Amino acid sequence: MNDDLGYRLHESVQHTTRLLASQPEADFHFCDGHVDISATVRHAEFNSWIAPDLAAIDRAFLSGGTSFVPAVRELITTRFGPEKIQSGDEFTSIAQGLALQAESA
Question: In the chain, how many domains are there?
Answer without folding.
Answer: 2
